[in-house]
Design goal:
Strand content: 5-15%
Shape: globular
Bound molecules: NADP nicotinamide-adenine-dinucleotide phosphate, fe (iii) ion
Largest sheet: 6 strands, parallel
Helix content: 40-55%
Number of strands: 8
Distance between the termini: 37 Å
Strand order of the largest sheet: 1-8-5-4-2-3
Length: 366
Amino acid sequence: MQIYMPTNVYSGSNCVRNHRQELAALGKKALLVTGRHSSRANGSLEDVENALQEEGRAYAIFNRIEENPSIETVMQARDFGIQEGVDFVIGIGGGSPMDAAKAIALMIANPQEGAGILYEKQELDALPVAEIPTTAGTGSEVTPYAILTIHARRTKQSISYRIYPKLALIDSRYLKTASLDTLIDTAVDALAHLIESYLNTNANAYNRMFSEKGLSLFAEVREELLQCRQMGREPKLTLSDKVFEKLMQIAAVAGMAITHTSTSLPHGLSYPVTYEMGVSHGKAVGIFLPGFLECYQAQEDVQAVLGNMGFASVEQFTEYLDELLGKVEISDELWKKDVELIMGNQAKLKNYPFVMDEETLYRFRR
Ligand code: NAP
Ligand code: FE
C-alpha cells in the first residue's frame, strides 16, 4: 500500500492572505486562470491579487476558461502565458479553471510542443501550480487530474500527466455566492468521488479512510442540502458557515480519495451526457450512482458506503438523490452510444473490480 499526497493544503478563513508567502514562493510572475465572472464576484481573485501585490509578485490574468474546458482554450491560455513570461500558474474557481491551470502549466513549460502531447505518455514537467477552489466538488485542488473536453471526440478525458498542485488554499467563504444548482451538483460530484473511490479495484485502507471521513461528513450535511433544494432559495440564505466549511472539506477529502484510485463507471458514463446534453458534471455523474450501487457485486461494501452516509438501503439513497438532483432523461440513441464507449474504455473499466457486461451497464440508466 502506498499513500502519496504531495499537495500542501491549507484551509480556513483568509488562508490566501495568511499563506501569501508560500504562494509567492512558487515563482516570480503568476498566470491567474479563472472563469469569466465568479472569481471576481466571490472575492477569491481580489484576495489573490492583493496577496501577490503585497509579496511583490507580478501577474497576468486569463479569465476565459469555460465550463468543461477545451483543449483549444488551454492552448490560447498557453500562448498568453508564454507571451507574458509567467513562471507559475494559479487556478481560481471550480474544477474547470483548476483543471485548465494544470494543463496550461504543462504546455507553458514545454513551449516547443503542440496540444497532441496532452494525451501522450511522456515524462514532461509542468510549471508549479497553486489551486484555490470556489466550488465544493471536484477536489481538483489536491488531485493530479485535469479533465479536458475533446471536441473531435465529442467527450471529455483526463490528460495523460499527473500534475499535483504544489499548494491548495481552501476558503469556504468563496462558496457562498454559488447558486443552488452549482452547490448541489458539485456536492454530488464530491459524493461520487467518495463512493467510486471506495468501490474501486485500487481501493485499500488509505483511500477508504478518506472516503469514510467524507461520507460521514456528508451524513452531517445531507438534510440541510435537501432542505435548501426544497426551499429553492440561494444557499447563502439557508446554510450556516459550518455547512459551507464542511462541504469544502468533503470535496478536498474526496479529492484525496480519488488521487489514490481514480474514478470509475459513473464518471466514465457521465462525460458523453455532459458533452451532448450540457448537463453539469456533478449532476451527470450523480444520475448513475444508484445503478452503480445496485449492480455492484460486493453488496457488503455497498452497505458500508450507505451506512457511512446514514442510509439504510440503496432505495432510500436513490429517493434522496432523485429529490436532490431531479431526473435527467437520456435518449436511447445517446445511451446506446454511451454504453458502447464505456465498454471500450479500459481506463475506467479496469477501476471496476468485477467483470462488467453490457446487460448490467444498461441497468445504470433509470
Ligand atoms: P465549473 O465548471 O468549474 O463551474 C461551474 C459554474 O459555476 C461556472 O459557471 C462558474 O462560473 C460557477 N462558479 C464557480 N464558483 C462559483 C462560486 N463560488 N459562486 C458562483 N458561481 C461559481 O464547475 P465544477 O463542477 O467545479 O467543475 C467541473 C469540471 O471539473 C469538469 O470539467 C469536470 O470534468 C472536472 N473535474 C475534475 C476533477 C479532478 O480531479 N481534477 C474531478 C471531477 C471533475 P465562472 O465560469 O464565472 O467561474
Ligand atoms: Fe468528478
